[in-house]
Amino acid sequence: MERINNLNLIVRAKILKKLIYIYPQKSSFINTDIAFLSKYYNVKTQDLDWNNPRKLPLNWFLQKLFLFKNILNSKAIIISFAGYFSLIPVIFGKVFGVKTLLILNGTDCVSFPEYNYGSLRKPLLKLFIKYSQKWAVKLLPVDSSLIYQKHLFNENVTIKNQGVRAFFPNTKTPFSVIPNGFDTEFWNFNNIISKRQGFITVVSTNNKSTAIFKGIDLILDIAKNYPNQRFTIVGMSEELQQQFNKTENVRFYSFVQKEVLRELYCQHQFYMQLSVNEGFGCALSEAMLCGCIPIVANSGALPNVAGKSAFIVNHRTIKNVKNVVKKVLNLSETEKEILSNDSRKYILTNFDIEKREELFLRELM
Description:
The protein contains 15 helices and 13 strands. By secondary structure, the chain is of the alpha/beta class. It folds into two domains: 2-178, Rossmann fold, CATH 3.40.50; 199-350, Glycogen Phosphorylase B (Rossmann fold, 3-Layer(aba) Sandwich), CATH 3.40.50. The protein has a six-stranded parallel β-sheet, with helices on both faces. A five-stranded parallel β-sheet has the order 2-1-3-4-5, with helices on both faces. The longest helix has 18 residues, at 333-350. It is globular, with a radius of gyration of 21 Å.
């Protein structure tokens, strides 16, 4: 808390200064950002439905009115994700001389047409993203892989070079990596490792191709090979669950409250994330704080977020996943306890919400 308290002396005087925060839709990490920024600034937000293309003209009109009303005397415009909703705020920032900070989270930096995933696979949306990233004052990716990465996990992916620099090599906007941050007091566990069983993953989607992109097909195939192991999948809608064949050792949950999710994490030994790409891995971090040992794909931000306690699946094949699962199941109880505690310590050290708060406040000074 000391570093935050030191910053408070500098920032408190600006507590009534306005700050505009733009986003496509509310999420837990956006709510977290708004909560800590509201301690220092009068944060102005606008809730619009950006998922419906038919509403875009009306949304752009309403967004302009919102910006005209709030941009004067605003310290900065913060935009989470790049998309149809980000370009007008960036232009307003340039015209009115207000700093624009563009948070890059994942889908706005990649294109995986094989899975119908990534905003950059859509030509018009890609154009909006290009100029949002080019004209922003600064980019704030949650992981360095969003600036550039070479995809190695799935050899069938056609676009190997991903990230801002890969798609827009002439975009020279400066950037600083500001990782996501987590409530390390809420996401906790009781240190009883021996009662944990099986594997858990979280996939928040209603779309089958996205679920496959997140590795659900691999996890279900592995479950068939280990009938005595427990596999839990959280976040898929009941309708989507019906589109997958599952064995008796697989249990699905749709949406659950975060208190229930914390309990589920604490009941499992391993958290498995086999996505073709992840811009960060919020559920992975939460699970590690709750003592889950990470098993992750060698893709995107996942190895960086999971750290040295992780088991890495290097390639998207059943054989590779089997080899890793076999290895983790042979761990002793002592080894599991050490890895479980190391997982939590790694997130505590690197991705505490206070660290994100401090880095953000420095960008706003």
